[in-house]
Structure formats: structure tokens, C-alpha cells
Design a protein that fits this description.
Helix 1 packs across helix 2, helix 4 crosses helix 7 and helix 7 packs across helix 8. It is built from 9 helices and no strands. The chain is an all-alpha fold.
């Protein structure tokens, strides 16, 4: 009985999320009602409230699902490694950009003004959390750099790169973007010139 109930709950939750996203593609979050969501999902309000506290809670869960899958994709090339040498990393093993391209409509939606959540910031924070909790960068022995700021710098930089690539309509190939990320991770510049 418990397994059947769990499957039913999972099925109703998934249907409500899917209906919500379908509506969100058509209109702004503020214009969507719970009645509309349950009608499209073919459930009732009681089922909605059995799964979610509010429409905002539903949006939070959808965003968390998306960010969780994004983190899975970021981990992909490193999941079997104990130590990662960025210069030796094969760009073909980086699945992240393929994932974004395959889910382009979803990410364009979440980056649009249809939702009232700063998805850009949530993306960057999710990557930052991953870097801080799961990776340990190695610095030169004489470096005075606080690793916290390196994690912040790299995670927000990678998020910005991904977001710009999405917003510009995936003009560069996924392979090119994978190569660029590796280059960015290993490039250090000692100086720059001021343009007149």
C-alpha cells in the first residue's frame, strides 16, 4: 500500500510541475492561478495542497529540480576521478553544454521575466556551493589567495558564461564552449594593457 501511495504522490507531483511549466511558457508567474494549474494537470486543489504549500513553493521545487540536474551534469566529467588535471581533461567528457542546449527552452524560460526569482543568482550559488563542498583547488605554495574567493570568482564566472551563451542563442557549439571552460580554468594573466 505504501509503495502504491508513494508512486501516486510522485505521479501527481510530476504532473502538477509539468502543467505549471506548460503554463509558465505562455504567461508570467503572477498571472497563473492554482486553479489553472490543477485543471491543466487534471487534478484538484486538494491534490495540489497535498504536494505544495503554495504556487511559490511549486516554483521553488521546479527550480531546485533544475539546479540539481545541472549539478549532476557539472560533476559528470569528474565523477570517477580523485584528482582532476584541467590541462588533461577531454572537452568531449564535459556534458554540461549539451545538457543546456537540449533543455534550451526550459533555461530560456527560467532566465526570462516570466518568473519573479533571480534564476541567474540561484545558478551561480548552486555552482558555488558545489565547488566549496566537493572540490579542493590546489594553489602555489606562496599564494595568499583565500580559496573562498577563488570559488566565488570561478562559479559566478562560469554561471555568467553559461547565461550569456544561452541568451545569445547558443551561437557557439557545445564542443567549443567545453574547450573554452577548460581554457578559462587554466588561464592566468599577469598583466593587462589599458586601452586608450
Amino acid at each position: 500500500m505504501g509503495t502504491y501511495c508513494d508512486k501516486r504522490i510522485l505521479r501527481s507531483k510530476a504532473a502538477i510541475k509539468k502543467a505549471f511549466l506548460n503554463l509558465l511558457y505562455k504567461k508570467a508567474f503572477d498571472k497563473i492561478t492554482i486553479s489553472e494549474i490543477v485543471r491543466v494537470a487534471n487534478y484538484n486543489r486538494g491534490t495540489f495542497y497535498a504536494n505544495f504549500y503554495s504556487k511559490e513553493n511549486l516554483l521553488d521545487e521546479v527550480i531546485q529540480d533544475v539546479l540539481t540536474e545541472m549539478i549532476v551534469q557539472i560533476r559528470q566529467p569528474y565523477k570517477e576521478l580523485k584528482k582532476v588535471y584541467m590541462k588533461e581533461l577531454n572537452p568531449e567528457n564535459i556534458t554540461l553544454f549539451t545538457y543546456f542546449k537540449e533543455n534550451s527552452d526550459l533555461y530560456k524560460l527560467l532566465l526570462s521575466d516570466h518568473i519573479k526569482v533571480d534564476f541567474r543568482y540561484k545558478m551561480a550559488k548552486a555552482i558555488e556551493k558545489l565547488f566549496i563542498e566537493e572540490y579542493q583547488y590546489e594553489l602555489e605554495a606562496d599564494s595568499s589567495l583565500n580559496l573562498k574567493w577563488l570559488y566565488v570568482y570561478r562559479s559566478h564566472g562560469i554561471a555568467g558564461l553559461i547565461i550569456r551563451w544561452i541568451e545569445e542563442g547558443f551561437q557557439e557549439s557545445t564542443e567549443y564552449m567545453s574547450e573554452q571552460v577548460i581554457e578559462l580554468m587554466i588561464t592566468a594573466t599577469d598583466a593587462f594593457q589599458v586601452k586608450k
